[in-house]
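Revision sheet: structure tokens.
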Amino acid sequence: MKEIPKTMKGAILPGNSTVELRDFEVPQPGYGQVLVKTMATTICGSDIRCIYRAHTGKGAEGYIPGTIAGHEPCGIIVAEGEGLRRFKKGDRVVVYHISGCGVCADCRRGYYISCTSPYRRAYGWQRDGGMAPYILCEEKDLIPLPDQLTYKDGAQVACGFGTVYEAIEKIGVCGNDAVLVTGLGPVGLAALMLARAMGASQLIGVEMNPYRIGLAEQLGLADQVFEPDEDVLEKILEATGGRGVERAIDASASDAGRRLAVRAAREWGRIAFVGEGGTCTIEPSPDMIHGQKTVYGSWVTSLWRMEELVERLVRWNIHPEALITHEFPLERADEAYALMAGGQCGKVAVVFGEDD
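Predicted:
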């Protein structure tokens, strides 16, 4: 392992659709902490929506200006603080991107995302994240990365795949189910990949971006992909024998996408809303009540479920990094964020080289 430098470059997001590289001291781990050498960090849609274009996020998504960005990091531990109980130098790890207080009811369930304590700080938002060669982490926030998975797989697990897995577990997907996913950005594509691995018998996507339609087809993630025209509901019903899908996931965050997910679900169907922001306009009686349907809101995932996911990714022999279409070094982070904001891509990663 090479000697750890004293300083490093880190990317911050000023909020005007630009990226700035600044000099930072490499932090030293304290009690219960480790220093992780970042190997890959992927860019999330919430980074674009709440930070990159403008600092619009509030509360949990409130970015502190000057904070190193990046809440989807994965790497290897290169220095230990005192008091570690599980992890050690040389361990490959995924960073669960919210550092909760650890003692509230939500944290004790593993749902750091739902922690409302003033001690809660998210990596890349209120504490320095993964857009730098090194990241200071609390041991409690780490997930072991199996050798069979790459660092780019792990970065995807850190937010996007973990988020989708949570939603899929809530609605339940198995070989009995036809599954609809509205919105085939990185989260929607992840939903298709995981639903396929869990045995879904029919996978249908809805997307308007030709690049992402092509990516879904290229990767063989969906049996059919429809564009969201005025006849799309009829097309989905026709593809499912006139009855609709058993399970639906909205990753579009659009009113039309959410409404379609609800209306395309058959009687007793289950729907998960994953896409952030926007609105939803439905007619409760015909769209939900008469069909006995259930809509689940799903936000990120829990610590224990993320650890379960990495185990199952190995079992299923699938690699989330397949959704990464573009990679950049840190020095070109501005290009990485601009590409992600433009949407003509799958997942975008900033990579930091190989293990020392």
